[in-house]
Hints:
By secondary structure, this protein is of the alpha+beta class. The chain has helices at residues 23-27, 43-54, 56-61, 74-88, 103-107, 147-162, 185-191, and strands at 13-16, 19-22, 31-36, 64-70, 96-98, 122-127, 133-139, 165-166, 177-179, 197-200, 203-206. The chain starts with 12 loop residues before the first strand and ends with a strand.
Amino acid sequence: MSLQLGQIVPDFEAQTTIGPIHFHQWLGDFWGVLFSHPKDYTPVCTTELGEAARLKPEFDRRGVKIIGLSVDTLERHGGWEADIEETQGQAVNFPMIADTDRKVSEAYGMIHPLADPTVTVRTVYVIDPNKKLRLSLTYPPSTGRNFLEILRVIDSLQLTDRQKVATPVNWQPGERAIILPSLSDADAKTRFPQGWETKKPYLRYVTISE
């Protein structure tokens, strides 16, 4: 059964490339991104791990811990990480879970029998500090993940957790947000004294400087 948004994600203990972890304890008060790979030494995932490692300072800046997962062993993870550094010009700088018994994969719904019952699909989970699932994405084997989009979603989630706003299509940090329809104009005046642009009663654009 797949996880649903707002659900507290399963806790687990696992062996990783930085040693054993207790997942909820490892996350602590941070946001988290858990992303799975079908198996080690796969070409698309090799490029993804290199890019995730390159962007780690951006995740750090947002208070986000990243962690990968594959059903292969720690020994194979080590060999693959050497290949990643060689081919992508970036060493892997975050932990990788060795889910050899598939306990994590099954708990998180990463095994899709109609795709391949022996390996995990390529899934991304964004988890907030309350350990609740805020985003899940599943990619086809042939398409590399867009980590800039994952960062954009995290920016949106963190903004909308702080403010009574939503973010419109193609929103980027610094652009206008939308005041929630549930917030009256009177309450909005208190929250957004800078004012806003009303396109429709339910569509009010506001610029937020944080």
